[in-house]
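User: I'm curious what two different proteins look like when written out as structure tokens. Can you demonstrate?

Assistant: Sure. I'll show them one after the other, since each token string lines up with its own sequence. Here's the first protein:
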Amino acid sequence: MPRRHLRVTGDPESPLRVALRALRTELGVPAGFPPEVVAEAERAERAERAAPPPSYDATDIPFFTVAPPGSTDLDQALHLSRRTGGHGGHGGYRGHNGFGGYRVRYAVADIAAFVAPGSALDAETHRRVTTLYFPDEKVPLHPPRLSEDAAGLLPERTRPAVLWTVDLDADGRVRATDVRRALVRSRARLSHEDVQKQIDTGTAGEPVALLEEIGQLRERLEVERGGISLIVPEQEIVERDGEYTLTYRAPLPAEGWNAQISLLTGMAAADLMLAHGTGVLRTLPAAPGGAVGRLRRTATALHVDWPHHVSYARLVRSLDPYEPRHAAFLLECTTLLRGAGYTVFRNGVLPDITTHSAVAAPYAHCTAPLRRLVDRYTAEICLAAAAGEEIPDWVLAALDALPGEMAEGARRADAVESACVDIAEAALLRDRVGDVFDGYVVDRAERRPTTGTVQLETPAVVGRIEGHGEQLPLGERLSVRLTRADLTRTDPEAAKVLFAPA
């Protein structure tokens, strides 16, 4: 599910970039990998090249990757085609034999081919848990030698992969699923902009053109089951001549279609594990009323019309991410995803909650193993389930600890995200201390009603507000004065941006 995307451009020695480097030091973010882990990654690369390849060779299929420009950790490659009937010569299916529909092939990097259980490299991934994204750089889960080279699905490189093949009917519904280890070879590295341009100009070949067709079918099914996809706008802090401006980059339709293929694979993985009786799901209970109430106050602050008879799901689908107020609201919608977690089950005893409320179906993380620890384990469970084999002991031994490890990784990622937003907003407002803005109080502390959170109308900044001994007017418009915008402040208890009633 999406996170808040924040990107910084400009002078590498600008105060904002300097503050981000200081933040990494403050948070204890590792600057590199221990020598023994780097050496082990090098040995793993050599050992993988010398090992017998997977028995299924899919290098004749012209896969392609779709990722933001400059992405180097390419987890997934896909190939889409129409089905003319039967199984198309690919065995192992448990499903429909009818005519028509589509075949989705989704290759996911097989990082388990490089990471030996119990090794120093394995231990390091359990310490890191996820790749951490800062506005100016990333801190990877695996050594770049693996994630950006030997294990990544780079164009014109033969790579081991976990290959998902999902057959859909003419309406986009799943009719058969298979997953196996395979050799694959991507032919092209495309950005979302490349895909959108090819589709819009009619120059896309069938494997690319079908992304729109299948993506739209899956979006319709998502609406039907009550799911919600948040394609979160990217915020960009642009520095020019020592001054900063905040802009939004609205998502392209192709980003949503591509996300639907990943969701489809995660749902197929969840179904496979539930049928097998052992696995790890990504679960999210329905949002509590208080969280939805806060979001309604944010809608009011941003002048987003949300009639009481309109559901949250219907509202989100009606918003225009090219409209800055709507873009800001979509960013705040990610707060409803913060209750998500990982649920382990074994031996056919299913958990009380098996669904992800935003997906409105069972769902599992399995498509980003270069950037997320749990995906390596999910892949092994699904491979064993599809082949009718025993799940490896090293996977079963790690299962019970995974939810806690992933929760700690999410906490760390949230702390990074929150601190980065604070720094970016402080940079944006640093020359406006003393200015008065119009905003709305969208949250108020229960035990200290004189403190809370204010959402400005413009720029779309969310900041802490401290009153003058009077209770803050929750949900009401309020003129506020900026009293602090200090991007160098290191006290974790003190907000970098602070407002007071004007």
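Here's a second, unrelated protein for contrast:
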Amino acid sequence: MPARSSRRSVTATALGALLCGALLHGPQAAAAAATGPTLTVPPTGSHGFPFLAAAEDLGSYGYTESEYFLSGTATSYAKSGLWTSDGRWNVRASGTAAYKSRLLVRRPTDPARFNGTVVVEWLNVSGQIDLSPDYWFERDELLRQGYAWVGVSAQAVGVNGGLGDIKGLKGWDPARYGSLVHPGDAFAYDIFSQAGQALRTPNGPDPLGGLPVRTLLADGESQSAGFMTTYVNAVQPVSKVYDGFMVHSNSAVAAPISGALADTLLMPNPSRIRTDLPVPTFVVLTETDVPGAAAARQPDTASVVHWELAGTAHGDQWAYDLGQPTVEKSAGPAAPSADCAAGSAPFNDGPGHWAMNAALRHLAGWARGGARPPSGQPLSTVLRDPATGLATGGVRLPDVTVPTRTLTGLRDTTDSGVFCGLYGARDPWNGDADAWDRHDDGDPSDPSFPPTAEPVLSRLYPTHADYVGKVRTAAQRSVDAGYLLPEDATAIVAAAQDSGIGG
């Protein structure tokens, strides 16, 4: 999923009984899926720490990090009957295979701080290594509210290695991970089910150290969100493991149940979220995602809610700043990277993380029987505000309602690597009438694109007090609407007060 500029390196991404050929439906299938995997503690290995170990001092937040191996027999699935765009997909078991993968666990050290909710992230392997983008987007909310977070090495490339000289876990530290076995992504869905099951009823050492699980949330961003869509539609009805789902930055077409990339062509297009499940699904799209996901738009229901975030990007400066030190700690120079063209715009530094914090808190309460989150307006995939260059529509937080720069989910990727465009762009306003830099990939011939003069900050905000007052009002409106948490509103207002904007 991550990218890098010319000066930066960024990374982009059991059924115990043999049920082959049987249709999986109802309590009997769910009971079969409850056959427990085995948990063990990995050896120390040559590095002395897990791959993707946090770079920040988790102890200063009252958290501890540990790793566990998860092993057993996983089941692969195949389509049963016709799959259509409504997401009501049936499956049958198609095979079994032995596996051994891992869980990376971050949890409160003090049991009294645990809020009862575990966020289980399907680790992203777009960069051919395990990455945790939603941990980075949601980090502040996770740590301040006492969640436990678990990253699951669900896919084969994260374990076995990727293209060229990119090493998976086994190649990165053979002494620690050499015993891992991943039979392929057809089995990834059941491995992810068994990970959730092991957190509820551990067979072996308890990854949560005895913390009582009240709510188990599944989470996936980018390519993991494609797998999450298929999991919600096809696997959750038979596994019944998770209490709610965060689908962050998926596209209009879900990942294939076979796990084979080529089979994406055989998936319903569009692939919407089924609306008949008793557990909720929260779909969050950034500005980068909307053009490729808009075909799968659907009305919000009692169990499915969508947000489309104005001024945000698939990956952004926030995720980069939190994630890159972690990536460098583990993968170092071997991390996959992509180059943004020299002189191109800086990464989007918009409000994606603020919105994800709010979405996570909403989902946790919703999954426990609380209120459904507020719906969001659709984001325009075409029109931009001619005065500011900002997208129109969508969920609009203070960064876009009281703007000081143009934020976009797209960028000019000429001469850039494949991941560069995922980080969007920002175009700071210098407070004068200089011409637009046009760093993003908007078409200057398009009349919806901004005119030749960018806004003048001193005209927008005649005094510093005026700017701060507008930010405070916008932040409170976002809190009242349910799109921003009060704690984050306080931080946004404090940042405005500390800025030199206005006058």
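A detail about the second structure: The two ends are 40 Å apart (CA to CA).
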